[in-house]
Arginine--tRNA ligase (Streptomyces toyocaensis), 585 residues
Amino acid sequence: MASVTSLTDSVQQQLASALSATRPEAAGADPLLRRSDRADFQANGILALAKRAKANPRELAAEVVLHLTTGDLIEDVEVSGPGFLNITLADRAITQNLAARLADGERLGVPLKEDAGVTVVDYAQPNVAKEMHVGHLRSAVIGDALRSMLDFTGERTIGRHHIGDWGTQFGMLIQYLFEHPGELAPASEVDGEQAMSNLNRVYKASRAFFDSDDDFKERARKRVVALQSGDKETLELWQQFVDESKVYFYSVFEKLDMEIRDEEIVGESAYNEGMPETARLLEEMGVAVRSEGALVVFFDDIRGKDDQPVPLIVQKADGGFGYAASDLTAIRNRVVDLRATTLLYVVDVRQSLHFRMVFETARRAGWLNDDVTAHNMGYGTVLGADGKPFKTREGETVRLEDLLDEAVQRAAEVVREKARDLTEDEIRERAAQVGIGAVKYADLSTSPNRDYKFDLDQMVSLNGDTSVYLQYAYARIQSILRKVGDVRPSAHPELDLHPAERALGLHLDAFGDTVFDAAAEYAPHKLAAYLYQLASLYTSFYDKCPVLKADSPEQVANRLFLCDLTARTLHQGMALLGIRTPERL
């Protein structure tokens, strides 16, 4: 791997050096470089420096220009406004930097960060015995993209799917299975849809017994105790139930084009044995106290009605444990056993208060500190076209499988309409890639903490900020590259660049910086915005700069080189978002 310093960083280094030479007290000052409409970059950090030095900003800016070297990197610098520096780069520098990126293969010159740590990402948390619905979409899609982005920057990520597989309802389900043996076929004998059908049938039947038969209700409650106590036969049936659910989970995640590793599915049950110790440690440290028989943690700044404190309940008065105990035990496991430096939770924003209390409790206990941090990536709600939470016409929550199937069907219509030389099998394959990509991109192009409307017509549109627009841009480039003949893509730094070539080149060079910023801020929508702008700039370049009919063989090769690097950047960026880029559409 050969990392490439971005043009932005190179300019910043020269500016910082010039600032230091002009004013030694400015050593280490941030030049505050930003993109500009009037030039390639604008530096406005001089205003703050002038204020501290009690100097005239324009005069200080003129001094800085005297210490800036123009030539290989910087072609021109001018002072503008109250003391800004407008900086124009040399065409040669742009082309050379891009050539170095293309030569680096799929990493495109993007370095690995030096201070990489271990991040545990808690995402995609379905519940055993329950169908996945539209509410499960965002956690899965956002979490998967964040893992890819973090891994690409050099962070080591560990996935955790904290599935709901423990609690009162499992006593009811298991007791029913004891009394009605053979109603669940082994997981190895059914597919995902059959598994869910079995689970739904058993759940509804057991719930009917539970609600109508007091004797069964009592037997079910005793079965909960047997489960929590580790009774062998009870655990065996519980395990069959969990395995049956996993078959279904995997079938849905396969439709989402996501890899879910079995060893990363670590549900609430995995922390059962550790919860008593968690409670004991918190009580011994004085972090948790007894109140009305329960073990709780109080917070001065969290209060409810009548200004009464809202506690975090670690252990109930009857000795049972809830979500707080399992979440705190999970933190201990992830910090101590997995040696995580960051805990990232991709969880519905409505659980923000719960995690705020859990994290503060863990900090008081010393499990979280300056070296080990936790973040709740609270995400918003998926809304229907009416702006209300997405429901079926009957008012029920939309099944995730139905939603994905419809997206693929709609995408098939778009692909078939545009397809010229695709077989039916290829159309079906592309429809899955386009449909699932459309769903993912609509989610990821929205800031995670915002709600967004689920509008399939817009999602599969060829126009606007959609994954289909990006996929067609990639496919168009591949079509051009298949027609090159004897001229191969190659960089020619000696050539002057058209303004559309410069704009595209500067944006291509910013890919690594964008990925690092988006990963550090847990903001996949920033990468999505970058990719949309890249496709838009490529469209402008394609319209204004003939590629195969350029003025000279060298210019043809150079423009093919820009096409090639654009395609590779689109492919890598979309892959980080978990979206496919078909070669033909």
User: Anything to note?
Assistant: The chain has four domains: 7-89, 168-263, 269-376, 400-576. Residues 400-576 form a domain with the Isoleucyl-tRNA Synthetase; Domain 1 fold (CATH 1.10.730.10). The radius of gyration is 29 Å. The CA atoms of residues 458 and 466 lie 8 Å apart.
